[in-house]
């Protein structure tokens, strides 16, 4: 919301050459517009505190570098509601109007970069994909559980990334096509099989929701296992590579840690059937090891 | 990250407001499983009285069954066993990857069915006991 300052007169000056005088006037106009905008926003903030059409946010705050903020606390923000406003929009509004030190990650604002997974009203959600109107007030916003908080809503993602790397999250094969320039074709059916698993945006919501991952730091976690599924089920990687992938997954802290609580599947913002994929890999691992002949 | 705030187990748990069906199912299944293991020992202990003769066994059973607490505990045991079996079957289906989209509904169904069976069993379990 705040990053798109509305009502800028931009297209006016494009096109024909513009005289210096007009440029100056435009500049003035723009400045005035900004001033009015600021004033209006300040008024809105004032009104927001008292008005009905506002949302009450309770936001977790913590900053190890400022002596007065080392003790974690919750700050209240009252944000004027606009139709379609998401949790991320509200946070940005609060940051821009109340406290510029409020820290959180975001980038795409369309559920594709995976940087704003937060703990909202008791469950893991993407800020940019969660409508305020769907939430009960006060909207309680916290950093992802089971991760160290670096500052405010920012958690340390290093451990999550380590687990993702551990499953070798890239295509590898030793069965290359004959011709040097041949493509590595995938059948439609096979593509369909891995389709959902390719959607992961590395947001870590699933990992944060998982009780098992919380208790066992070495557990690969749903996202990493799903990533492994994406490649283990890809027929183009060939048998040898599948074997290698199953060996990684079968380890003590691999698929067998999963206790089918389904919390990952419920929070995944990309609707990936994580538990289903983990269960399928368990069965693959057993089939791989049980040989009666 | 030289400094970062670790919220610890207790705080995490209290923050958890949306406990989902699958999580409850897991906790109940663990709990009922271990209660059943506990009962197994009690069960063996009571049955072992038969080693000291038929009369000893009959006396023990009669003494136990005349107590209201024992009758109530039996109802509890039935509840625990029925839930464990029903949810156990649910888990077997989950392991087979069958009906995963209905995992929450099947958990609630296990709970309700357990409740119904337990309520229906109360007259039998509590019959002829003096308070
Ligand atoms: C028809 C009867 C039963 C069925 C269908 C059944 C099914 C299951 C299943 C599927 C699990 C695995 C849960 C998981 O995936 O983590 C389990 C766990 C367990 N069962 Fe049963 N069970 C039955 C009877 C019993 C009995 C009679 C006992 C006690 C003597 C028992 C004790 C346990 C325990 C202690 C666990 C938990 C183990 C753990 O901590 O992981 N079960 N049961
Ligand atoms: S599997 Fe879903 S919840 Fe987990 S990191 Fe990927 S997108 Fe996020
Ligand atoms: S901001 Fe990119 S996923 Fe929400």
From TrEMBL, chain A:
Names of required cofactors: [4Fe-4S] cluster; [3Fe-4S] cluster; [2Fe-2S] cluster
EC number: 1.3.5.1
Record-annotated 4Fe-4S ferredoxin-type domain positions: 198-272
GO molecular-function term, one example from the UniProt record: 4 iron, 4 sulfur cluster binding
Top-rank taxon, per record: Archaea
EC category: oxidoreductase
Region Disordered, annotated ranges: 1-50
GO biological process: respiratory electron transport chain; tricarboxylic acid cycle
Keyword tags: 2Fe-2S, 4Fe-4S, Iron, Iron-sulfur, Metal-binding, Oxidoreductase
Domain Succinate dehydogenase/fumarate reductase N-terminal as annotated: residue spans: 56-161
Keyword Iron belongs to the record: yes
Family to which the UniProt record says this protein belongs: Belongs to the succinate dehydrogenase/fumarate reductase iron-sulfur protein family.
The name this protein goes by in its record: Succinate dehydrogenase iron-sulfur subunit
TrEMBL record, chain B:
GO CC entries: membrane
Protein location: Membrane
Key words, A-Z: Heme, Iron, Membrane, Metal-binding, Transmembrane, Transmembrane helix
Top-level taxonomic group: Archaea
GO molecular function terms attached to this record: electron transfer activity; metal ion binding
CDD domains linked: SQR_TypeA_SdhC_like
Pfam family, one: Sdh_cyt
Ranges that cross the membrane: 31-56, 68-86, 106-126
One GO term of the biological process aspect: tricarboxylic acid cycle
Main location: membrane
Protein name stated in the entry: Succinate dehydrogenase, cytochrome b556 subunit
């Amino acid at each position: 919301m705040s990053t798109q300052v509305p009502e800028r007169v931009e297209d006016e000056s494009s096109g024909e050459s513009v005289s210096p005088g007009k440029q100056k006037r435009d500049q003035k106009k723009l400045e005035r517009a900004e001033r009015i905008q600021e004033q209006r926003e300040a008024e809105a903030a004032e009104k927001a505190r008292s008005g009905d059409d506002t949302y009450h946010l309770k936001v977790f705050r913590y900053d190890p570098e400022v002596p007065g903020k080392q003790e974690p606390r919750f700050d209240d923000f009252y944000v004027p509601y606009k139709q379609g406003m998401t949790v991320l929009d509200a946070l940005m509004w609060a940051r821009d109007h109340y406290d510029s030190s409020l820290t959180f990650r975001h980038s795409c604002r369309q559920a594709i970069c995976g940087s704003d997974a937060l703990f909202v009203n008791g469950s893991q959600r993407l800020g940019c994909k969660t409508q305020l109107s769907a939430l009960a007030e006060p909207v309680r916003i916290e950093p992802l559980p089971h991760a160290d908080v670096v500052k405010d809503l920012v958690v340390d993602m290093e451990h999550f990334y380590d687990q993702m790397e551990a499953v070798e999250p890239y295509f590898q094969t030793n069965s290359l096509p004959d011709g040097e320039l041949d493509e590595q074709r995938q059948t439609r059916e096979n593509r369909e099989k891995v389709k959902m698993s390719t959607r992961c945006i590395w947001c870590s919501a699933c990992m944060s929701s998982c009780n098992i991952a919380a208790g066992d730091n070495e557990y690969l976690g749903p996202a990493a296992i799903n990533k492994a599924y994406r490649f283990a089920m890809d027929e183009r990687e060939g048998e040898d590579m599948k074997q290698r992938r199953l060996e990684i997954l079968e380890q003590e802290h691999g698929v067998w840690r999963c206790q089918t609580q389904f919390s990952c599947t419920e929070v995944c913002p990309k609707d990936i059937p994580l538990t289903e994929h983990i269960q399928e890999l368990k069965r693959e691992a057993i089939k791989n090891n049980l040989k009666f002949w | 990250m030289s400094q970062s705030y670790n919220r610890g187990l207790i705080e995490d748990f209290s923050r958890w407001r949306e406990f989902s069906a699958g999580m409850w199912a897991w906790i109940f299944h663990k709990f009922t499983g271990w209660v059943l293991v506990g009962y197994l020992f009690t069960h063996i202990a009571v049955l072992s009285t038969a080693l000291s003769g038929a009369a000893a066994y009959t006396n023990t059973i009669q003494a136990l069954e005349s107590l209201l607490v024992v009758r109530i505990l039996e109802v509890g045991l039935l509840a625990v066993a029925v839930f464990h079996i029903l949810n156990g079957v649910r888990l077997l289906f989950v392991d087979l990857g069958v009906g995963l989209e209905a995992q929450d509904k099947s958990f609630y169904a296990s709970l309700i069915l357990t409740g119904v069976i337990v309520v229906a069993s109360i007259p039998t379990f509590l019959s002829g006991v003096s308070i």
